Amino acid sequence: MRKIMFSNKVYIVSTILFLISCADTSTPDLIFIGGKVLTVDQNNSIQEAVAVKDGVIIKVGKREEVLSTAKSRTKIIDITNRTLIPGFIAAHEHPTLAAIFADTIDMSGFTFDSSEAMWSNLKTQIKNKEKGEWIFAMGIDPVLIPNLVMPSKKKLDAIAPDNPLFIVSQTMHSFWANSSAFEKVGINKDTPDPGLGSYYGKTDKGELNGFISEATAAAPFVDELKSPFGLIDRYQNTLDDLRKSGFTSVASLGFNLPPFLAKYASSNNLEPRIRQFIYLTKQELEYLPDAVENGDDYYTILGLKLWHDGSPYTGTMALSENYLSNELTDKMGIPKNHKGESRLSLKEFEDQIETYSEKGWQLAVHSQGDQSNREVLKGFDTMLDSKGKLLRHRFEHCLLISHSALSKFKLLGLTPSFHINHIYYYGDALVENIIGDERAQLVLPVKTAFEYGLHPTLHADSPMFPTDAFSLMKTAISRQTRTGKTLGIGQAITVQQALRTMTINGAWQLHMEDKLGSIEVGKLADFTLLNQNLYEYPIDQWDKIKIEQVWLAGNAAW
What we know:
single chain, alpha/beta, Urease, subunit C, domain 1
């Protein structure tokens, strides 16, 4: 009898201890100490330690204060004079496009410094292809490669007489194809142009010349690369690269992998969290859920991506005054006395706002030129009701957005994302060849966006430019081109502001600021560890900063 009573007591005590341990909400699983913690909170405070339990931050503060919460099972991570920051948030990228073009032949100015070397490499690569096999190449750019000899159908026919050949520009707004490629996709001189800046280039005699403008006209050529199941491994590799670059979340702005595959990829092997914006095309609209509330912390379809104008490097960005006219703009296919055009009429754009914003979907609108910016702002001003103003509709790229336009954003609940490395990679060409110095000094007014409290972000628009957070922030701080010239130096932002564009502001634009973007109690433990302190390290040496480790919800992801 006594043995039974003793056994019962042991069982009861064990059960109580077990329940206490289960209910223990104060003992951290992890504590980070030994370095600087750049919290990116409201005051940009710098702390000494962080405690994490069940993937959530439970304490931030002084080293001894945080260590006092540790128990025997708490893992102490000594970051040893390094710097912990919130995981970077990629506000506007194209991981599916990056995956599609990952195995294409490289023709970029990042790799080649001369036209001769680029074309020679392409010819060599083509020799290794089977007869009849599709050949895809990417990166051709008359700005990044000096004295570039541009493609023509005749030139491409000579280079690839036995294969369909399709070339994508670095900007992803211009394309070229040979005769075999046009034949394979069933496009000939009589095929109607899609319109609104998207067309098939013609000779004076009305024959195809090999040039293709904008993605709508180019879409049939990339079907060979778009098989979702063939893409999944390359997509996962793209997410791996983002994670290794310190990104723990990414917004995919159109041209998306089907949701079930993207969701699998994002939750598999601790990949970055994904927020998809669906292109307004028949194929992608099939992915749009019935309910705005969908997904989870790792994957959600957040809204729709709309195109209002195009690129400054094809003449499809909509301006109020003409582009310049010279040898470079001729190579880009920009006609003389040309201003570009909007892809949507005001009525069409207002109809889209009415259809989707009123259902609660966030809209992200590609709008580069000053004329496009004005028209998009007018559409939102006319159509947004009080509910729509809470959705944080986004202007994407914002090359020539004016201060007066930005002054109206807050009242309408709008927010900008800036394609900042237009300055670094193309700033010299913008000044000298494309829009001229007066307009080029007005580009990308990030500081003004901060002054109006608009939560601006920076993006690379990959695969156009590398998804390198340090490069994006450095350009926003220095406003320097590749040759060291400055554009709009009065719009330079601080290091603290720059870090906010890549963390908490991205979280805010994605409606996740309560969970991500800063190191504060109650948020998910998405961290990136750097070998240097951004607030102290000279920006001209930021190319030496290394990503040393990444955590998603407290789990080591890299």
